[in-house]
Amino acid sequence: MAGASQLFPHAEFVTIDLARQIADDKKLQKWEHDNGFYLYGYTVETAEHQRGRKVEKAVNYKPILTDKNLHCEQNSDPGSKPCILARARLDYAFDLYSKNDQHTQQQIRNELQDRIIAASEQRCNVYRMYLKRTESRNNFMLGTLTTVLGGAGALFTNQVGNRILSGLAGITSGVRAEFNQAYLASQAAQVITKGITARRNELRTKLNARRSENTTQYTLQAAIADAIHYHGACNILTGLEAAESAIERVENPSLDLMTKSLYKSRHVEEILQGKTPEQFKFQSFSESKSTQPEKTLALQFDTKLATLGSNLVQAFYAKAEERPHLKALLLTLKDEKTAASKKWIEAINEKYVDYLNKIQNAYTEELDNLNSYTDEQDILASQLRLKALETQLLAQQKLVLHQLEAFNTALDSVTTNTKSLAPTYQYLFDFLPTFP
After folding, report:
1. In a domain, 174, yes or no
2. pLDDT by residue (tens digit) across 151-181?
């Protein structure tokens, strides 16, 4: 029911002898013999060869099975002799590797990375099957028990027995739900495994992009670290994060996605108008791959940033908790210089909201213009203007947040004297951006 079993024996395929993968085997065997290290056990064979008048001796280290417990296992003491020798052996293997030419080093590096990835794939397949098997087994057992108890309760005419069985059915149903929530965060196993696969594919693409680099740019150690990172992505947390990210993208589509949808709409109009493929202007844009959400504005302009007023109110109340005697002053102080004599907090909030509204309207207007253009030069120019607006807003966001920090720091020196606070408000108000 779960699928194919492991293709290769676990102990033989998944366990990797790193040193033997990167170093010359005979030199490594000699080091092992000279230093009393036996991973598998070796016997020394000496053979004499007659070459002319000269007799040469050849030494061959032949692997044999051994019952000596000289392994450095995962739970072994790092200070034990086997583990000390194992580290020295690995260092020696790296030293042998470094003496190879550039081409050989790159080949060994890529082959070792492939070896680790292959072992990781087998382990990850087993883990994915384990997740599905665990979910299926628990849901089947608890679901069956709930059904049996609920059905049995319906058969009883005795009211007490009926209530007991119905209660037990409810308990088992609740246990099933709690298990799915606690261990799988209420996600189906196939959703989690799909997230694991997607994340590992993403890492694999990045990893493959570096394999053509030389070993100075992309060292053996870095390649091993990347392979370990790839293997570490096979866990339930990765799957849940990917599932959450997918849900987030559905609930909060990026502007890139919205723009792409508009392109598709215009492309459909082109088809309905009877234009030929050569006349299509929006097909390539509608089929283009969206950029990553973190590289664009994830939401509309007015929801990308919390309004400055709400941030200020939070800052004021935080200060008011520290100094209750300032609360009324912070929230009610007015700008006496203006005719309307507005509260400073209202004036600051209105100015910033006005900026957000204007830049959003400019963005929406430019987006409408983009959808009406047919000339490629006009389309490109419009896209550049949109990117400029995005960049401007993001830059203003960073500046305003920085100024807020300075404003909050300035509040530490505020006294009950109105004159000491008004200049601080005025400076923040003047600093706020305006949109032409």
Report:
1. yes
2. 666 666 666 666 666 666 666 666 666 665 5
117's tokens: 């990835």
Instruction: Assess whether 308 and 337 both reside in one domain.
Output: yes
Q: What is the pLDDT of residues 3-31, one digit of tens each?
A: 555 656 655 566 788 888 888 888 888 88
User: Mean of the pLDDT values across residues 56-63?
Assistant: 56
- Same structural domain for residues 30 and 141? no
pLDDT digits 0-9 by tens, 290-342? 443 333 332 333 344 444 445 555 555 566 566 666 666 666 777 666 555 67
Same domain, 289 and 200: no
The C-alpha atoms of residue 418 and residue 333 are separated, in whole angstroms, by 8
Same domain, 84 and 151: no
On the 0-12 / 13-18 / 19+ scale of CB atoms within 10 A, 53 is exposed
Query: Sign of dihedral through CA atoms 15, 18, 24, 26?
Result: negative
Tell me, yes or no, whether 4 lies in a domain.
no
Q: Is 1 a member of any domain?
A: no
What domain count does the chain have?
4
Burial of 13 (0-12, 13-18, 19+ CB in 10 A): middle
Whether the pLDDT of residue 101 is over 50: the answer is: yes
Rg of the chain over Cα atoms, rounded to whole angstroms, equals 34
What pTM was estimated for this model as a whole? 0.47
Whether 58 maps to a domain, the answer reads: yes
Q: Please tell me whether residues 326 and 425 are part of one structural domain.
A: yes
Residues 181 and 154 in one domain: yes
Q: Which of 7-21, 207-221, 270-284 has maximum average pLDDT? A: 207-221
Closest CA to 9 of 107, 99, 110, 126: 126
Is residue 421 within 8 Å of residue 408, measured between CB atoms? Answer: no
CA pair distance 233, 337, nearest whole angstrom = 60
Together in a domain, 166 and 50: no
Write the DSSP symbol of residue 290. P
Which of 48, 46, 49 is closest to 61 using CA atoms? Answer: 46
Looking at residue 226, what is its pLDDT?
92
In terms of residue numbers, what domain contains 221?
Answer: 106-250
